[in-house]
Specification:
single chain, 141 residues, mainly alpha, 6 helices, 0% strand
Length: 141
């Protein structure tokens, strides 16, 4: 059976990108949401990657439309729905992400000498490499 990447209709907080990625990669979408949250506040790239995926990846059980105006309307409709009916785990994801960021920034600000490696310039690439290895190993199974 061919695996397709799509935006989830059932497991979504905003556009269903993390739900679809979780299904595609065989991971809990909560971890993917947390990773996007950290990428948004840690470096800012997560916001643009999420928006791009929201526009480019088709929704579950639909075909890809070549009309970008229609795609942007769908994104706007999805955003309006998400603001009116928030996901039940949104507090958990945002709270967990804020705690992790707070700990990272606190440790970085303390300037403890033996935590020299605990720097965003070193930490983020290392975490991305570890996440990539985990995903490849899970996907290989």
């Amino acid at each position: 059976m061919e695996r397709r990447l799509y935006r989830s209709r059932e497991d979504r907080m905003l556009g269903g990108v993390c739900g679809g990625l979780g299904d595609f990669l065989g991971l809990d979408p909560t971890w993917i949401r947390l990773a996007f949250f950290l990428l948004v506040f840690g470096g800012g790239v997560g916001f643009w990657v999420y928006i791009l995926m929201w526009i480019l990846i088709p929704e579950q059980n639909t075909t890809i439309s070549s009309d970008f105006g229609e795609r942007f309307r769908v994104v706007g409709d999805d955003f309006a729905k998400a603001m009116n009916q928030p996901h039940p785990k949104s507090g958990l994801i945002i709270g967990g992400g804020l705690i992790i960021l707070g700990v990272v920034w606190l440790l970085e600000a303390l300037g403890i000498p033996w935590l020299w490696w605990f720097d965003f310039d070193i930490l983020w690439p290392g975490l991305l490499i570890i996440a990539g290895i985990v995903l490849l190993l899970r996907w290989k199974r």
